[in-house]
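Protein modeling request. Please complete all fields; requests missing the sequence field cannot be processed.
Requester role: graduate student
Desired output: 3D structure, token encoding
Chains: 1
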Amino acid sequence: MYTEISVPRHVAIVMDGNGRWAKHRFMPRLAGHSQGVKALRRCVKACLVRGVRVLTVFAFSSENWQRPEDEVSGLMGLLTTALGREVAELGREGVQLHFVGERRGLSERMCAGLAAAEQETAHNSRLVLNICFNYGGRWDIAQAAARLAAQGEPITEASLNAAMGLAHVPDPDLLIRTGGEMRISNFLLWQLAYSELFFSPVLWPDFDEAALDEAFAAYGARERRFGKTSAQIQSAPPAKMPV
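Delivered output (243 residues):
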């Protein structure tokens, strides 16, 4: 059974391997992305069961615009369809949606859909689901600094952190990247400073509860020191769990 100690409060995921999953099956890449939506639905439910409080996923990077035009347009269509199909169910499950990323350049229809989904689920508190869409870690830092400069505020670690796209949640405890690649690819560059990293060989469409539990088991076996020594960590009183 799962405990509050072994389950990370905030999980971030780079959902990688959709295209390769499709290629292995002689299917178009968009079929892999479609299966990836199902994998995300499965992962959200698993996180709800296990008591994860925040799930942040990398859905579309600012660099993904360089992909073939038909794949990009297909991904936009998938997001639009998913908004129509999934938001009501996520709302019933107690999920609060946030779309983090640059919205300039997106269609008016899509921007309206993102805003409506956020508004519709704003009252929920069981799980915060951050979908990083048209997002890049460098963009996030740059936009935060630009915002502070425009307001005439000093740029410090605290003020920069408060201007980030994920200022509404604590930093991730665990980053999972699927698909066997071992890099973070411009994802949450600021927020991952002290996150534990787990790289899974499983392609995202095949990522299931067992794969998630494997990542959680690895996380639970690690000692998070945040610059302190092991002796300091072991002698400290148990941290109080959030209410």
